[in-house]
Write a structure and sequence with these properties.
With 149 residues, this protein is of the alpha+beta class. The protein contains 2 helices and 9 strands, in the order αβαββββββββ.
Length: 149
């Protein structure tokens, strides 16, 4: 029985490392400091007047982001949930899930994007914009923006 318990713990320890999230690659410490914390989140179809929020947390060198914006008029929403794999001066790479549900896009059915996406600051803008703007479920451009504090 002891052998089984030791073997089980050994296998558990080895597989835990496989599933652990890798540390975020930080190429710009100032950009990483700017990114950590609470931010406004917006999808243009929902509103430019009121925002949702996204929180970027840092745990043992791993940056994660989770947020949502909900419409005040209907059931439209955007959610962001995943990890930030790298941060540079003007962009970060996100690996996770973004779900948009807009009443007049994709028949009002939620659309899920999964995988790696780039958020970038361009010009003098005060936000990171998701670069993969083409909605994969319909003919539409989605501007998912995370604003600087």
């Amino acid at each position: 029985m002891k052998r089984f318990a030791v073997l089980f713990l050994l296998i558990l320890g080895l597989t835990a490392g496989v599933f652990a999230q890798q540390k975020t690659t930080v190429k710009s410490a100032s950009a990483a400091r700017l990114l950590a914390g609470k931010h406004k989140l917006a999808l243009q179809w929902i509103s430019w007047d009121y925002f949702g929020s996204a929180v970027v947390k840092v745990n043992k060198g791993v940056y994660s982001v989770k947020g949502e914006q909900k419409s005040r008029e209907n059931n439209d929403f955007v959610t962001v949930d995943g990890f930030i794999t790298s941060i540079s001066a003007k962009e970060f790479t996100f690996d996770g899930t973004i779900i948009t549900k807009i009443s007049h896009i994709n028949g009002g059915v939620a659309c899920e994007r999964k995988g790696e996406m780039i958020f970038r600051i361009t010009g003098k803008r005060k936000y990171w914009r998701m670069q993969q703007i083409d909605n994969p479920c319909d003919v539409a451009a989605d501007y998912v923006d995370i604003f600087m504090r």
